[in-house]
């Protein structure tokens, strides 16, 4: 395996974290540990933001150099002690000097990085099946070829990419910085994002729990477990069912099958039929991924790469939550500078999670200890203090103030992201979800049950029986109505919203972890009511897919804080339960949650090792091994300079073929689906039908018909298409023959073969001869 590359990337990550540490410490100075765990995400945000903007003028070494200079300048500005400088002494500022917690964070990063490197080394290939690896690798390769941003779309030649590519941009920058070819950078970057997420969760949970005696390290380790290794309850549930008596097994399996995407036979399959894939497909019509599944599957995808920056946004909200009212300048900088800047970059990385950044800002202010109105207007805040309108009006005013602050921050963040947003595809709208499409109670419990058990136990314990009973009575009637109206989510997370809000706004011993609980519960409830209507459906599939990853990450940190705190703290509100017995019950819950969420990791990782081959990090090594007759042709295209336009068969999926037949080859998610463009970054006229979701069906299908005409039409029609799209090369391989039959350009002047194997012929288009003809 490429051990030298692993070491090289670890050194570069360490250097970037060292430069990002003082910036993070200054930004998050009001939270315990001053942002330990967020050094690398902070550095990557600076690096990516500068490179993105400079890249519109010149991408590549110029953009990378400018980004490194800005990061270095910020590190010096925030990392050196200014008082010492006045005395002509070089000293690190307070909070930046290395300590034990910094070593811990570094060790967590290295351990997580090496774990994922080992996982990817056993299955490094960017296979087109079972995910979006062709898309992700294609974006990385097209960025490698780009001279300016946005890069050209490898599946829609002569037009810029309209997909969020910020994470791939960071990968391209790291590839250049380490001198690593994209085929290796793909998997090393994947491991880096995983390690960055685990380290951020570790540091964040530890910071939240810092105020509780001896709780920092248990909370940090628990959060790292939940975000890095834990899964939903599907695997544990199947193991439990397999232990039941046969007659009961069948009844339970039938019940589960009627409320999920599984068949009764699949439920009864037990360990022998285990597949890492099935646990991510629980609720019908949706995708229910969790982090470990996503990293095992190996897509270098936006919903994964955006997670460390989502936690960074939550940490900024936590810093605002803890900043004293008298430090109004810092509160305004965090709300109106830090969050909008982060949101501007996150828009390019993972647009789906940007609203959550402002939602976290709003909740931090609404549920925090201080009035949010001074951030907007001291005059309005003074006017509110002079009034005595009662607690209900006061709470409503706080919520309105928090919404206004988040709204202003959203406008500023939107302005920074406007160039990207204007270039993305339109046509999306928010639609109301029909009752028949909502999740069942069983499906919700399978996906979120471990977190729900943790949070309900924690919040009920902290609220106390005397306060919980009135809430339970009030919510009981609401639960009955919710079931009657086919809204099971109200029963699962509705009380969490009420309990969490009540705990934060009273004198209960809770902290920012409860803000994260409320945030995640709000997201789960939201996708049961509305969804984003788009071509990437059907219905809310993509909405749940992208939202549930955010929920898992936020709840992992919250559970990391809540579970150890619940076990260690025996309150006095239940005198009938002896302290020892209560401690055993609490420990039992914690053990049960861990045991219910760990089997997937054990089974999936062991199966991954068993089916793994010789370790390598080369994402394209499979091409020569599995497609030896086409590999030389892929290499020929990859060696071309710049981004000449390629003509190849469109991967239309369900759309009609040249004769009007449905399901015409090559389809999608197969080797024949635009392999040359996807593996080289050389753009083809019409690639995967993902472009329908980006640009609309009319634009995509027009190109599909043009490509079909070029392969099957008269010489004049072929020439017209080649000239219109400025085609430089034509690819004729198995997909083209499957779609069009025998293909020959013998009657077209200026189109001559330049590369030929037994399965692929590549033609070069001579523009001058083509025009003359």
TrEMBL record:
<feature type="transmembrane region" description="Helical">
    <location>
        <begin position="220"/>
        <end position="241"/>
    </location>
</feature>
<feature type="transmembrane region" description="Helical">
    <location>
        <begin position="300"/>
        <end position="321"/>
    </location>
</feature>
<feature type="transmembrane region" description="Helical">
    <location>
        <begin position="441"/>
        <end position="459"/>
    </location>
</feature>
<feature type="transmembrane region" description="Helical">
    <location>
        <begin position="184"/>
        <end position="208"/>
    </location>
</feature>
<keyword id="KW-0812">Transmembrane</keyword>
<keyword id="KW-0472">Membrane</keyword>
<feature type="transmembrane region" description="Helical">
    <location>
        <begin position="471"/>
        <end position="498"/>
    </location>
</feature>
<feature type="transmembrane region" description="Helical">
    <location>
        <begin position="61"/>
        <end position="80"/>
    </location>
</feature>
<dbReference type="Pfam" id="PF10060">
    <property type="entry name" value="DUF2298"/>
</dbReference>
<feature type="transmembrane region" description="Helical">
    <location>
        <begin position="101"/>
        <end position="122"/>
    </location>
</feature>
<keyword id="KW-1133">Transmembrane helix</keyword>
<feature type="transmembrane region" description="Helical">
    <location>
        <begin position="583"/>
        <end position="603"/>
    </location>
</feature>
<feature type="transmembrane region" description="Helical">
    <location>
        <begin position="6"/>
        <end position="24"/>
    </location>
</feature>
<dbReference type="InterPro" id="IPR018746">
    <property type="entry name" value="DUF2298"/>
</dbReference>
<feature type="transmembrane region" description="Helical">
    <location>
        <begin position="552"/>
        <end position="571"/>
    </location>
</feature>
<feature type="transmembrane region" description="Helical">
    <location>
        <begin position="510"/>
        <end position="532"/>
    </location>
</feature>
<feature type="transmembrane region" description="Helical">
    <location>
        <begin position="333"/>
        <end position="366"/>
    </location>
</feature>
<protein>
    <submittedName>
        <fullName>Chlor_Arch_YYY domain-containing protein</fullName>
    </submittedName>
</protein>
<feature type="transmembrane region" description="Helical">
    <location>
        <begin position="36"/>
        <end position="55"/>
    </location>
</feature>
<feature type="transmembrane region" description="Helical">
    <location>
        <begin position="399"/>
        <end position="421"/>
    </location>
</feature>
